[in-house]
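FAQ

Q: What does a record look like?
A: Structure on top, sequence underneath. For example:
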């Protein structure tokens, strides 16, 4: 179990997170919900170890491989789709994931030649190629049509042990099978 204990994050005088305490399961899917600016992305960055809280602690992540799909795709523009995903895995696994996301015709294309939805799917494939233990998703389906959302969500559900998704879209949370929700700035509630 992952335990968040009284997490506080400040950016200068601005408090981004105040007193967040919750327990996350070892498996399944949890949705982070809240209005824009509520701290969803900040909490994902704390869970990923990219941001240290000003107070409080996170336990239960030691020894786990964590991957993240950021709001921005963060692909290397000088690398092909296949090379971007292969950076974190072997080429066979990268190819398999890209094909499962219907990108077999885009393996040799660089990000500037890809549509926004294609870049998004490459970013999802890269996160899945890195780790199937803990997958952090920040508005993961931006730019994807309904069919591609469902396709990506099915692959994520089948591939990741624990999914934590920050989203404004209830449909995205349902597609990922989120049976729990952490409403910021409130405490953990079951839905």
């Amino acid at each position: 179990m992952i335990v968040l204990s009284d997490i506080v994050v400040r950016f200068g005088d601005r408090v981004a997170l105040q007193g967040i305490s919750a327990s996350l399961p070892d498996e399944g899917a949890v949705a982070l919900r809240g209005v824009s600016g509520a701290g969803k992305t900040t909490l994902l960055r704390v869970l990923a170890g990219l941001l240290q809280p000003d107070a409080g602690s996170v336990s239960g992540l030691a020894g786990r491989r964590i991957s993240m799909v950021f709001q921005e795709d963060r692909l290397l523009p000088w690398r092909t789709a296949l090379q971007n995903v292969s950076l974190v895995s072997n080429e066979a696994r990268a190819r398999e994931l890209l094909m499962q996301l219907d990108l077999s015709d885009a393996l040799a294309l660089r990000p500037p030649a890809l549509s926004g939805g294609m870049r998004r799917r490459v970013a999802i494939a890269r996160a899945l190629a890195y780790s199937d233990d803990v997958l952090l998703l920040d508005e993961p389906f931006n730019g994807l049509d309904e069919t591609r959302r469902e396709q990506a969500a099915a692959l994520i559900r089948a591939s990741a042990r624990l999914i934590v998704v920050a989203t404004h879209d209830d449909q995205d949370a349902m597609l990922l099978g989120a049976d729990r929700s952490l409403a910021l700035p409130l405490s953990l509630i079951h839905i």
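Q: Is there anything notable about this one?
A: The chain has six helices and nine strands.
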